[in-house]
Amino acid sequence: MNPTTLAALAAFPSQLEAHYAAIPDAFRHWAPPSWEGVPSEAFTAIEQLCHVRDIEVEGYHVRFRRTLEESHPTLASIDSEPLAIARAYGMADAAKVLAEFRIARARTMEIVSNLTDMQLARTAVFEGYGPLTMRSLVHYLCSHDQQHLAGLQWLAGKIDASKAAVAA
């Protein structure tokens, strides 16, 4: 696997925590009047953390296992909004979510760091993405990580803009 991708995956828990910490406490549950232009799912800062944790475990861990164990499986996409509502993401404890995510990402790193070329070439079909290889799936996870860092930065920009609008 590409060492740059592996390094980005390994660094993500700390980056996620730092980006979340940069959101002012009073805005961690805040939603902008419009989500137009958001580069990630339309989730508040705390909901972003919960989403990343759940997609890691229930999305990518399952997809990795199935791609490695089954012959050309079809991998489900997860509808995140109903999950956020059912699990009350907005009420979550950030420290607990971040700790759970770190454990999940450590498991991910165990899986993806030791894949052979043959395993990386295994194929599947991912709903919404189409045909892929295990290597593709690892890249998509890395892309998903980056989307959520961008989502937190986007929220920080919206928060700052909302403060400027009040001051004007």
Automatic annotation (TrEMBL):
Pfam families (alphabetical): DinB_2 (PF12867)
Superkingdom field: Bacteria
Start and end residues of each DinB-like domain: 11-150
SUPFAM superfamilies, per the entry: DinB/YfiT-like putative metalloenzymes
InterPro entries cross-referenced by the UniProt entry: DinB-like, DinB/YfiT-like
Name of the protein in its database record: DinB family protein
